[in-house]
Specification:
The complex is a heterodimer of chains A (about 220) and B (about 220). With about 220 residues, chain A is an all-alpha fold. Chain A is about 80% helix and about 0% strand. Chain A is flat. Chain B is mainly α and about 220 residues long. Classes of the chains: A mainly alpha (about 220), B mainly alpha (about 220).
Chain lengths: ~220, ~220
């Protein structure tokens, strides 16, 4: 127990980096996901194929292999990242594919009549999508997006494999220094659980506020 | 780019792939059994059992699988019961799978109309039989596609056994990279192998889902 209490600062530093990685990858992934979901609705077939290929390749390969490809593989092509940069890039690319599918599901849930009505009012297709369909879709998908964010917090633990000093890595360093294995692993697990339960609660509240605006 | 490196190491990559598949299959079977027990325990076991099992499920679902694998592997040796990486990975993956699959089973059971349970109980059938023999079979159209989907995730998740030093596909690939200094080719081939395993299953989920929806089975819950 003492080893945990004496090193609260270490855990806090690791947790801060974990959250930074998750937030960055979620914001980046949302941008990529939105673009991808839009491409799947594009009139040009190559744009649709590209989007489908990206989503399927990412969703059918492990995140850890994607991280190795970014961190170890891309330098062969002259593209180099720091461990932290590689982790954020890999998780962003990974998130983008999952978020694209969430957004696509949300867009499909909007009745086609909405687009017809927007067209009848003389709105361009782009304005109709961005101003009419997207806000409604967001209301349908925010629980799935919140869940995706929590999954990203957990997934960022693969950063330990390339030496990013996020929560898991700082805990393993502390473990190898102190050999207080059980205490440290229990604390590590409980910190993740507390953070994910807290985030789930927070996002349910934010989501309720988002829903209220429309009623 | 030098692709001969892949041919030279084909046997090692194949070996790693076999370990990956074995891990996923065994953990899937063990996780399904565990998940079914947990789901039935939560539905049939009364309030206390439900609360206890729910806490256990939340503990697993709220922490990373990578950490759970380390807890099993390092924790076992810390308490004087050292495990080899393969059994440790199997235990960690099975517990993790059990938690997620129990939610799939529970969701499936909940999707069957309440009238079915009430009718079964009204006929004087024992509660266990009503859940196991009456409700569960009707929940299968919801449960089976979700289970296949989960198996895809499990195949990918076995890559985390990398941290235990277990020579599944990802660790094997990483070792080859370290030896040959050709990480780009090897990581692409690794991704290709995982894709070849997972993508057909992804298509299967889509086909099964569409067929169940067409046949109306998924709607027949009056």
């Amino acid at each position: 127990m003492a080893v945990v209490l004496d090193n609260l600062g270490v855990f806090a530093g690791g947790l801060a980096l974990t959250l930074l990685v998750a937030v960055s990858a979620s914001l980046g992934g949302s941008a990529v996901g939105l673009l991808t979901a839009m491409s799947r609705l594009a009139p040009a077939a190559p744009a649709r194929w590209l989007a489908v290929t990206y989503v399927e390749v990412i969703r059918n390969t492990p995140g850890l292999v994607q991280l190795f490809l970014v961190y170890l593989g891309l330098p062969n092509l002259g593209i180099r990242f720091s461990p932290l940069g590689a982790l954020i890039v890999a998780l962003t690319v990974n998130n983008g594919a999952y978020i694209a599918e969430i957004i696509r599901g949300g867009l499909q849930a909007i009745p086609k009549g909405q687009l017809d009505a927007a067209a009848a009012l003389g709105l361009s297709r782009r304005v109709a999508l961005v101003e009419v369909v997207l806000p409604q879709a967001l209301r349908a998908i925010h629980p799935a997006l919140a869940n995706q964010f929590i999954q990203t917090v957990l997934a960022s633990s693969i950063g330990t494999v390339v030496g990013v000093e996020e929560l898991t890595q700082v805990s393993l360093i502390l473990e190898s220094r102190t050999y207080q294995t059980v205490e440290i692993l229990v604390a590590l697990t409980l910190i993740y659980v507390a953070v994910t339960v807290g985030l789930a609660w927070l996002m349910r509240r934010l989501g309720r506020r988002l829903d209220k605006g429309y009623r | 780019m030098d692709w001969s490196i892949v041919g030279d190491n084909a046997r090692l990559l194949l070996w790693g792939t076999e370990t990956t598949i074995a891990l996923a299959l065994v953990a899937f079977v063990a996780g399904s059994a565990l998940g079914l027990l947990v789901a039935l325990g939560r539905v049939l076991g009364g309030r206390d059992a439900d609360l206890l099992l729910r806490a256990a499920v939340d503990l697993v679902r709220g922490s990373p699988l990578l950490v759970q694998l380390l807890v099993v592997y390092l924790g076992a040796s810390a308490i004087g019961l050292p495990l080899d990486p393969f059994p440790a990975a199997l235990v960690g993956l099975s517990i993790n799978a059990g938690a997620y699959l129990s939610e799939i089973f529970r969701g499936g059971l909940a999707s069957v109309a309440k009238g079915q349970t009430e009718a079964g109980l009204a006929l004087g059938l024992p509660k266990g039989y009503v859940v196991w023999g009456l409700v569960l079979p009707q929940a299968l159209p919801v449960i089976v596609p979700a289970m296949i989907g989960f198996f895809i995730g499990l195949l990918k998740d076995t890559s985390l056994a990398y941290v235990l030093g277990l020579l599944e596909l990802t660790r094997m690939g990483k070792n080859i990279m370290d030896r040959t200094f050709q990480p780009f080719e090897i990581s692409l081939v690794m991704a290709g192998i995982y894709f070849a395993l997972c993508f057909p299953l992804s298509l299967l989920v889509r086909v099964v889902d569409a067929r169940l929806r067409r046949s109306g089975l998924a709607q027949a819950r009056l």
